[in-house]
């Protein structure tokens, strides 16, 4: 059982959880997930909570291929109003901020946000891990290669699972040096990986359990799913459900999704099927 002291809020990862994706962006890859004003974003957050989301992951930066890089200032302008509104109405709701900027992390942690979800695991901003440690925040670190401009370029490697284990072992040592012992790993489905590697990760997810850390999987409506089936992201709910089910059966602790109701139903049914 993992009990992460996320900014003084308990984060108990002893059973599978759903993380709802709340994009405060005009250009995220899945159009239906975009929210450009506080009213629609807040309504979506309320719906996620009602549908069973343990965590609401709020992001103000699209990390899809060819997306325009936004500065930290823009992220904060987008994030702060909705974060303030959610914290005021739901003070005990677990919220994560999807950012690789330490300044954004610190500003939202000061407000009471308990978790930072960093696609770079501290690689894109040298101050990130110090900020996470300072606030005793919950932390999610993703497998990624390259920098903010090259993160979608596929690297040549013989064994994606071996490469990933080595990456997270290295990150584990780094985080320990900052006093960060408990964190969640994200294999980075779709980031700088081939379609075959993405499916290999889901099939062999149990290998990452050797790290002794909870695993988050983010496959929701990703291109490896919908392009394999010759459909579009808007039609990829069924594909997402299948991939998330396999991931949960193979050891995922958190599934990060656009469709919270359906994801919650997966977890409910698996209680009776395992």
In short:
The chain is of the alpha/beta class. The chain has helices at 38-51, 72-89, 102-111, 128-134, 160-177, 195-203, 223-229, 237-249, 260-273, and strands at 2-6, 9-13, 17-23, 55-59, 94-98, 115-118, 138-142, 184-186, 216-217, 254-257. The protein has a single domain (18-273), classed as Dihydropteroate synthase-like (TIM Barrel), CATH 3.20.20.
Provide an overview of this structure.
This protein is an alpha/beta fold. The protein has a single domain (18-273), classed as Dihydropteroate synthase-like (TIM Barrel). The chain is 40% helix and 16% strand. It contains 9 helices and 10 strands. The strands form 2 sheets. It has an 8-stranded parallel beta sheet. Strands 1-2 form a two-stranded antiparallel ribbon. Helix 1 (38-51) links the parallel strand 3 (17-23) and strand 4. Helix 1 packs across helix 2 (72-89) and helix 2 (72-89) runs parallel beside helix 3.
